[in-house]
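Hi everyone,

Forwarding the result from last night's run.
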Amino acid sequence: MKARDEESPAFIDPSVIKPEKQAGVDYLSSEHQEKNIIRILMTFGDRVITLEYKDEDGNEKKQDIDVASYIVSDLLNDEIPFGNNLYQKIFNEVNNEIHDDKEISALATTLLTSKYELNDWGRVKIHVISEEEKLKVSVEHALLSIKLRWLERKFDETIKALQQATGDNDYEILLNSQKKLLKKKSAISAKLGRIVLR
């Protein structure tokens, strides 16, 4: 049996090593979700999707609505703002149906440029489902993702406020708010197929 070489490093227990937090990284940033919403608005805003819902009597109903109207009304209804000023400006422009801004045009060109060409797959008889074919799912996923990120930021703000709470009344109000946020986060995460860790 060979003796362990004095030069070789000893075993390090991975549970002892704590990863360093990256400086300057905002883990609660909604930049990606906001950019995706704007991309969908600009790419598919005029397309029509069919929403299914139940009326007051529990009857199944269907309604056709264009993607831009659906996204704008949904985000306005939930009072979800954009953190990125340019994305907020574009959202406002879409909401006001005004499209003559040069910054918006430049971003539109960037967002509308597809990263992948799918044309060649048809040649080998493989059908690749495009985003347009699953548009309703893409829109709903984008909306749920931005709402989840917004709730995560609010949840984090509530944790910080709890740490600074002075009175029992403040503490109780913040705890109730935190419970409501966690319930909403869990519901949206379930729809997205994600697990809520905190």
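The two ends are 49 Å apart (CA to CA).

Cheers,
N.
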